[in-house]
Amino acid sequence: MSSQAPHPALLIPGPIEFDDEVLASMSHYSESHVGAPFVNTFGECLSMLRKLFQTENPSSQPFVISGSGTLGWDQVAANVTEPGEDALVLHTGYFADSFADCFETYGVNATQLKAPIGDRPQLDEVEKALKEKKYKVITVTHTDTSTGVLSEIKPLADLVHKVSPDTLIVVDGVCSVGCEDIQFDAWGIDVVITASQKAIGCPAGLSIVMASGRAIEAFKNRKSRPNSYFGSWKNWLPIMQNYEAKKPSYFATPSPQLIHALHTALKQILSQPLADRFARHKKVSQGVKKEIDAMGLKQLASKPENQASGMTAIYLPEGLTPPEILPTLMKKGVIFAGGLHKEIAAKYIRFGHMGVSVMSEQRDDISRALKALKEGLAEVNATKGGK
Amino acid sequence: MSSQAPHPALLIPGPIEFDDEVLASMSHYSESHVGAPFVNTFGECLSMLRKLFQTENPSSQPFVISGSGTLGWDQVAANVTEPGEDALVLHTGYFADSFADCFETYGVNATQLKAPIGDRPQLDEVEKALKEKKYKVITVTHTDTSTGVLSEIKPLADLVHKVSPDTLIVVDGVCSVGCEDIQFDAWGIDVVITASQKAIGCPAGLSIVMASGRAIEAFKNRKSRPNSYFGSWKNWLPIMQNYEAKKPSYFATPSPQLIHALHTALKQILSQPLADRFARHKKVSQGVKKEIDAMGLKQLASKPENQASGMTAIYLPEGLTPPEILPTLMKKGVIFAGGLHKEIAAKYIRFGHMGVSVMSEQRDDISRALKALKEGLAEVNATKGGK
């Protein structure tokens, strides 16, 4: 039994449902942000993040800063790239447009490589683009939360290493870290940015970043100073290194309660093999997608190989809009999200299946959601048909 | 009786002790960041902030963004000022140096007006500086957390309005909002930045800003785009306006749990007249300062009129350092902070007296802290004398 007040199951692609123990950690009594107990907790979070990202290279550097996933983009654009440099942004939905906008804010030229809605740029197109211009970074959204389209990171990284080895590989893992396999060292990734409130399973409010030694070198070799203050690695790097060495340090006040919740969430994740966690998400996702198919519904992600494990974006039957179906689902105790990709937002809904809703043996969130969707669609259709 | 686990009383100048009900709000079950219940809660927070800042002018604009107080500086430097413009930074401690550094990051020229440690720039010096150059903004730290020095906002604002009426007045209220009187409208202030974890009494993780119509106009009339993405008012202004109108809206995911805690904290603050709250903080502070005097200890803030109500920075007896006394206090169940002003950090400690520790009739945090300090000093002196 959950100790949480009764509430509809939140099955949007983040924030997700949180475990009782994680939520209890949010109420931790107040601690000094420079006292030993809190500094130890923060340091352990950073060490655990290395495990979650599967990096043992000591030059890898985790960052945890109060903010949201979006702040990760600022961190990349303000620290890794410099004004006038070029970024190649692979587009699989809304979040590539925003990341490109962030680069432009910092004076970095963003070139977007687009694919039809529901698909992703193909490797030969990426290769062609990389050969045409020298890019400081290439960015890829692992799972685009607006479309549920998954990008394959390893083959992409292999290609970049071969064709343009100096280009740094930046992964937007906001909707993938914690539910999709990410082998930071083995695949040779340079930056992964993410947030706390999705598959990591900790309430929103933290920007989480893992940077490679190469990314940190690029930062250290900048000709200009980082052009953010709150998001500056010049300010945060010594702090993160001190925290991990369990030494008190101050730049800006972190959120002890959120850090405690992150600590609990990471401990839970690492209490079993990561491979099992990723496999479980994949299995549940495949089950969801099969049921969606069986209901006669189509997904935005058009091919099995580019469908994310943590969410499913579902086209509604012709003529039905999110405001017609979402309240019905809510009455059945399930919250889904509306569309976010601006060209087709009124045509689809999004179902997040990540974290405790997927991993817990005690919860039936996913099966209840599928049942609610099936019944809800039938009810709405009946009502519309009867008009 | 508190429902919190037993712990030493946190009496540093932020984070402070939090009320049970506020901490319980941190464990709120997960909600959609675009669902009506959460949007209503966020909107009410913004409306309550107007009351806390004593502004009824509809053109005033509150912002609440995941981050820390520091992010407020970025918001000012990236939205209100433009590269090449000038900022006059009144210096009363560590935080003016940092704010100036933040301005320089964004290409704004920061001129610091310094005072001897423990004092503040005098009005005639400010007047002289304002007459020498055209400043886009003047900034003042209301209470500098590193020194406990209070700046007087109203006379300063009156002077600026008279001498340099186009100069926007920016108040760093991180350590003052919630415990010092701030009359946003009546005094004609343009921006106040603050954070959640001090006298507002909500755990750390939120950057809170109130901007005047003039400040928003300055932002709208920029010749260049805001040079931050996560901190850009271009991105956040429509979101905040929508939240307050109770309309769902998305730029970056806020932290529902922190917003619930802020809601609880603001409701508690506004449940009694603000004047009573400020008077209570002043009275308790004067009591603390009298006891400190009686112990033969000197304050950093050298004159009664520049001593903050929310904290006291205390010089240790000659030869005694913070690492010698702070662990003794901790054993007595009280946590104070060490020095932060770099020139004299080893010579003083800081005692925060804000929020629930001051306002609650049930708690004896302040009297216990004074007793611990008195006894602790005697013990440490005896030990040192015996060596």
Automatic annotation (TrEMBL), chains A, B:
The record's GO molecular-function terms, alphabetically, read: alanine-glyoxylate transaminase activity; L-serine-pyruvate transaminase activity
EC top class named in words:
transferase
Q: What Gene Ontology terms describe where this protein resides (cellular component)?
A: peroxisome
Q: Where is the Aminotransferase class V domain?
A: 27-341
Q: Which domain of life is it from?
A: Eukaryota
Q: Mind telling me which InterPro entries this protein's record contains?
A: Aminotrans_V_dom, Aminotrans_V_PyrdxlP_BS, PyrdxlP-dep_Trfase, PyrdxlP-dep_Trfase_major, PyrdxlP-dep_Trfase_small, SP_NH2Trfase/AEP_transaminase
Q: Which UniProt keywords apply?
A: Aminotransferase, Pyridoxal phosphate, Transferase
Enzyme Commission number(s) of this protein: 2.6.1.44
UniProt binding sites for substrate: 350
Listed cofactors: pyridoxal 5'-phosphate
Q: Which GO terms describe its biological process?
A: glycine biosynthetic process, by transamination of glyoxylate
| Positions where N6-(pyridoxal phosphate)lysine occurs in the chain | 198
Which family does the record assign? Belongs to the class-V pyridoxal-phosphate-dependent aminotransferase family.
Q: What is this protein called?
A: alanine--glyoxylate transaminase
Organism for this UniProt entry: Saxophila tyrrhenica
Which lineage do the record's taxonomy fields give for this organism? Eukaryota, Fungi, Dikarya, Ascomycota, Pezizomycotina
